[in-house]
Amino acid sequence: MSNREIEVLAKRRTHYALTNTLPMPTAEVDTLIRDAMRLTPSAFNSQSSRAVILFGAESVKLWNIVREALRKIVPAEAFASTNQKMDAFAAGAGTVLFFEDMDTVESLKKNFPLYADNFPIFSEQSGGMAQLAVWTALSEAGIGASLQHYNPLPDAEIAATWGVPAAWKLRAQMPFGVASAEPAAKTFIDDADRFKTFG
Predict the structure, then answer these.
(1) C-alpha span between 171 and 49 (Å, rounded)
(2) Domain spanning 13-183: which CATH class is it, in words?
């Protein structure tokens, strides 16, 4: 059975080897990212996900901020591999910084107290869907990406550098660009360990 959505999801992979080139103008990539996030579902239509989209030198600046934050905690003798990772991410054409707006979450908790304990969970679920939506849209456009999680180490400097509102909580970083190498083969756990079907 052929299904376009499954084909698109199968195409999305983790690409670490990126170039600073794009198959389309940056304005089109920016629109693609915005549209993917705008169309992502969210509980109560809360639209709590936010993004800062960095291209070129701004993306390089981000990975240098992360690099210096990591230098403070990674032992010097082990820093070479960390440094290589930062170089690889900085080599891309850009980075999407994904945030969740905690003011939105708090407002929902206040307005719908019956569900108050669930709104932080709903926010994380919406954020994860937004990340997948952007990642898949980039992949379909011929743009490789990976999802990174260096927060909270660089959060304060990122907020200061790009004027991020205090209520925005950094959840992930996605470096992107045209991939320069094929990803490793994807493996899957056995279906019997993952699924149960009845009826």
Answers:
(1) 10
(2) alpha beta
| Sequence-distant (≥ 6) Cβ neighbours of residue 171 within 8 angstroms | 98, 99, 100, 124, 127, 131, 149, 151
Provide the mean pLDDT of the chain.
Answer: 96
Strand partners, 168: 101
d(CA 104, CA 130): 16
- Rounded CA gap, 18 and 145, in Å? 8
Instruction: Of 66, 69, 63, 70, give the one whose Cα is nearest residue 90.
Output: 63
Closest by Cα among 33, 21, 20, 51 to 140: 33
Q: Where are the alpha helices (DSSP H) in the chain?
A: 4-11, 26-38, 57-71, 79-90, 102-111, 119-140, 155-162
| pLDDT, tens only, 79-93 | 999 999 999 999 999
| Residue among 68, 76, 82 at smallest CA distance from 153 | 68
| Model pTM score | 0.95
